[in-house]
Amino acid sequence: MIITTTPTIEGHTIKEYKGLVSGEVIFGMNFLKDFGASLRDFFGGRTNSYEKAMLEGREIAEKEMRTRAQNMGANAIVGVSFGYETLGQSNGMIMISISGTAVVID
């Protein structure tokens, strides 16, 4: 399945629009990740634990969106965008969402 941020796919014609599809994942960041990140904030550098968690969350959300599109009979998704949001009283949770338009291409 082709998944793209563009509204069209070069070399293909959109034959049918199936509708909006999305995928979401919400996960909490544990104490050790928060502690490591705070040290990196103080000393500088990248927070690998957060980066790994964000990549993993994005992959899960994308897989969920792909499955929903396939269940609708689509073979591609166009106009995809990602969103990231912190949630919870102490912003201890992160929501990753992805959405696009499920389509049938030739």
Quick structural overview:
This protein is an alpha+beta fold and 106 residues long.
Word description of this protein:
- The chain has 106 residues and is α+β, with helices and mostly antiparallel strands.
- The chain has a single domain (2-105), classed as Hypothetical protein apc22750. Chain B (Translation Initiation Factor IF3, 2-Layer Sandwich).
- Helix content is 35%, strand content 40%.
- The protein is elongated and about 45 Å long.
- The protein starts with a strand and ends with a strand.
Let me know the CATH homologous superfamily.
Hypothetical protein apc22750. Chain B
Q: Given the structure, what is the number of helices?
A: 2
> Tell me, what's the shape?
elongated
**Runs with pLDDT <50, length 5+?**
none
Total strands: the figure is: 4
List the SSEs and their pairings.
Elements: E1 2-3, E2 14-28, H1 31-43, H2 48-71, E3 76-87, E4 93-105
Parallel strand pairs: 1-3
Antiparallel strand pairs: 2-4, 3-4
Feature tags:
single chain, 106 residues, alpha+beta, Translation Initiation Factor IF3, 2 helices, 35% helix
